[in-house]
Each structure stands twice: as C-alpha cells, then as structure tokens.
Design brief:
6-stranded parallel sheet, alpha/beta, 19 helices, Rossmann fold, globular, 4 domains, single chain, binds adenosine-5'-triphosphate
Length: 465
C-alpha cells in the first residue's frame, strides 16, 4: 500500500466520464446527455461554465443548472459534498481511497472498479488474480464500435451477474435482426475490458468450420494449433481453465439450415453442437457469449440450477433517445408532443433499431423529417429495405412455418393455439413443431393473459399480407 499515486497517469477524462455515467445510470436509469457530459469533461479540465456553455451552444445559466443537479446527484451517490470547485480533487481522493480498497460513501457501497480504472495496484492484483495481474490478450478487430448506446441497463446487469457472480459458461443473446444484440454485447465488453485476460470477438457472418475457428482462437492466444480437432479442443479448454477468457461468437444463426425448423445445424457445422455442449459441461473459468437470431437446443436451459447456461431474449427499445441523430424533426411545438409522436413511431416499429433507421430515412426524404406528418397518415409503412429483409426471413422458414405465418397474418388480434390449429390443415406434430420454431426465431411471441395467445410481429405481418 506504500505506493503514492499521481492521478493523471491512471485516469483520463474518458474514465471519469464512464465513472460518472455509471453513477448517473444507477441513480436515474439514464445515461449522461450531451450537456451533462460537457459539464463533467469541462469541469475535469478546469474550464469555466462560460467556456462549457459556448462549446455546447447553450446559456451559462443552463449549464449552471445542469451542473448543480449533477453535483447534487454525485454528492448523494458518493456520500461526499461534491461541487464544481472540488469535483476533481474529490474524485482524485475517492479514487485513491478506493484503490486502497476503502469503501466510498456512507450511503453507497461503491468502489471504483477495475473496469473503469486500469490501475496497477498491488493489493488489488493480489486479491483479484483474474484481472490485471496477468497479461491481457484482446482481439476485438471484428467487433463494431459503439458510439451511441441507450437503455438496456437491466440486460447489462444480467450478463454481468451471470459472468462475474455465477460463472455461467454459455450465454446466448437472442432476438430478431436489428433488435440490438451485437450492440448490447459490445457495450458489455467495452465496460468490462479489464476483467478478462483473453477477449476474442468472432463472427460467423461468413461461417467457417469449427476447426478453423479453433485455430483462429488458439492463434490469438499465441499457441500453435495442434493437428487434430480433438487436440485443438483440448488446447483451448486448457486456456479456458488457466485464464478468464471471454469469447463472443456473433451471427451464429448462419450455421443453421435454411428451409427447416429453427436451430438445425448444417452438416458441415455439426461440430459446433458438441463444442457448445462441451463449453457448458466441462469445468473452467471462462465464458462464451453466442449471438443469434435463432435459438437452438444447446442455448436453452431447462434447469438453471443444474446447467451453467442462460439466454437473454431481447425485445425492442422504448427510449426516444434512439431516434436522436436520425435527422427527424417534429412540427409540434411542445417537448411533450414531440416525445409523444416519437414514442408512437417507436411503438409502431416495435422498438427495433433497424426498422426505425429504415423508416427514419423515408420520413426524412418524403416528410422532411416530420414524424407527426407521417403518423397522421395512420399507416404502417414498410420500406423497401424492410420488405427485402422480411422476404429473406420468410424464404428461410420451413414450409410448415410459412403456412402458420400466412394463417397468423390473417388475424388482427393475438390468437389461441387451439383456434390457430383449427384454421390450419397441419398434423399435430407439424403444427406444434412449427409454432415452437417460430418462437425460437422471435417472429411469433406468446402472450400470457387469462388465456395463452400467439401473435405475429406486426411489421412482419404487414409484409406477408
Ligand atoms: N441500445 C442501443 N442504443 C442505441 N442504438 C442501438 C442500441 N441497440 C442497437 N442500436 C442500433 O441499432 C442497430 C442494430 O443493432 P445491432 O446491429 O446490434 O442489431 P442485431 O440484433 O445485432 O442485428 P442482426 O441480428 O441483424 O445482427 C445498430 O445500428 C445500432 O447502432
Ligand atoms: Mg448483430
């Protein structure tokens, strides 16, 4: 503990922003907005409210108000009296205390975590051999860069809990295309870079054999891959045992057969089935995240006590913030109306970022960005881009699933299994398998009211009709 710390060598303004952002999210459920970010950044760099106001093109008074609110929130979160004048020095002290494992604040049991501060603290290293003490080995070349990220706090919390508290070996992040799976996982990775010795992001967008994937993974870990697939697996699982690794495999749906029920492996990718089972069943300290539009049996967990498998099924976002920077305007004058129409648009397109981006482009071109004008026409418009996307999805389904979808699209309301079954000329086996498979693809959702009902995604329904 006898070390002294010069703060600026360990903390830069981005780390401070991340730290404050996390406290704010914990307290309010919302991330820092642009002005709040500017206040934190400016204050850290010892700028005046005048400088910050000029940079943000807002008044000095407004910046002062935002600042006051922020200092109040931080004071409560850290149990310290935080003001503009003492923000930097207080954070420095809090940091030093926390790096000596002292708990911060009386009412908030929070310490700076190593994910925010990548600091070489001996004591910390000794108590946490999983993290900074060993050399890290990260390959995120194929991972997207996340610039904007909203909501999904509970999903991030779930993943963190599964990985850091329960050591769940196999986590699947599932949902429709465009719902935000890749973005969510990348955000989790960005927040936890320091927690893993090895992080490798792979995509099966252009699928490859398991053997090639194993060779790639071993190469990133600086190991020369042995000859046989069995030997390679052994090498990899030895690494999984020795080190805390995080492997992300994106676009897993591409190894499944098109035209058949969901989650059936193509012959050349059948090895993946054993690989996923091995990840679950062997003992090690590592975690694999699969990202897929389609669920297969190995991703499903029937007994959480028995198997270290979890799946996170994503639904749409409902925050107006996701529409910002999409060039949309609004003809309404009040903020509430403006938010209301944006929320309507988000609900109409089921909170799916891909649909929302696509429709925003159309609204920009044809309605000069005015959401209320578009909504006034009262139609669920399907863009060209969506149409070709859904055609692809429909063609990818098995013939029985296509029959069910076509039938479901005729109903305006969710329908019970019995009614749906009656309206179709399918055997009980085909019907049940088809209905299950459509849910494994997140095209049909089950609604639990007094009766169990099934519903086709509205946007998909419009395309099928
Ligand atoms: N939480 C979020 N905040 C802001 N933008 C988001 C969020 N989630 C997704 N997006 C945006 O929505 C778009 C689609 O997200 P993403 O690529 O993660 O979807 P996906 O589920 O992985 O789709 P696919 O299955 O087709 O790969 C991205 O451009 C991303 O920027
Ligand atoms: Mg993706």
């Amino acid at each position: 503990m006898g070390e002294t710390f010069t703060l600026h060598s360990f903390m830069d303004v981005n780390e401070v922003l991340q730290f404050v952002d996390r406290l704010v999210v914990e307290r309010t459920g919302k991330h820092l907005d642009d002005v709040q970010r500017a206040v934190v950044e400016g204050t850290w760099q010892r700028q005046t409210y005048d400088d910050i106001a000029q940079k943000c093109h807002v008044t000095k008074n407004y910046v002062g108000d935002v600042g006051a609110e922020l200092w109040k929130l931080l004071s409560e979160a850290l149990g310290e009296d935080i003001k503009k004048t003492n923000f930097r020095s207080n954070l420095e002290r809090v940091y030093i205390e926390s790096s000596q494992n002292i708990c911060i604040g009386t009412n908030h049991n929070f310490t700076f975590s190593s994910q925010i501060l990548n600091q070489p603290n001996k004591q910390h290293q000794e108590s946490n051999t999983n993290t900074q003490s060993k050399s890290t080995n990260h390959d995120l070349t194929l991972a997207p860069q996340i610039i904007k990220f909203h909501n999904r706090e509970s999903e991030i919390k779930n993943i963190s809990n599964w990985i850091f508290n329960q050591n769940i070996h196999l986590i699947s992040v599932l949902g429709l295309s465009g719902i935000g799976k890749t973005t969510l996982v990348k955000r989790f990775v960005d927040l936890n870079l320091q927690q893993f010795e090895v992080i490798i992001w792979k995509s099966l967008k252009f699928p490859k054999s398991l053997e090639l994937l194993l060779t790639d993974l071993l190469n990133v870990c600086h190991q020369e891959a042995k000859e046989t697939i069995d030997a390679k697996l052994k090498q990899l699982f030895n690494i999984f045992t020795d080190k805390k690794c995080l492997i992300i495999i994106d676009d897993v749906q591409n190894i499944f057969i098109s035209g058949e029920l969901a989650g059936q492996y193509q012959t050349e990718y059948k090895d993946y089935q054993n690989f996923f089972t091995m990840i679950t069943e062997t003992q090690h300290q590592s975690n694999v995240i699969l990202i897929s539009q389609e669920q297969c049996a190995e991703m499903e967990c029937l007994d959480e006590e028995l198997y270290p498998i979890r799946c996170l099924e994503l639904s749409g976002l409902d925050d107006v913030e996701i529409l910002r920077n999409m060039g949309l305007k609004d003809s309404s004058t009040t903020l509430t109306n403006h938010e209301e129409s944006w929320l309507k648009l988000i609900n109409l397109y089921e909170g799916n970022c891909f649909y929302l981006k696509s429709i925003s482009m159309l609204i920009n071109k044809n309605y000069d960005g005015k959401v209320t004008d578009f909504l006034a026409e009262n139609t669920l418009h399907i863009t060209n881009q969506m149409q070709s996307h859904f055609r692809e999805i429909f063609n990818h389904l098995s013939p029985k699933e296509q029959e069910i979808v076509l039938q479901l699209s005729k109903f305006d309301r969710p329908i019970s299994r019995e009614d749906l079954r009656q309206s179709l000329n399918l055997s009980s086996v085909d019907f049940n398998n088809g209905l299950q498979s459509l849910q494994q693809r997140y095209l049909v959702t089950k609604i639990k009211e007094d009766k169990i009902l099934f519903k086709l995604s509205l946007v998909f329904k419009e395309t099928v009709l």
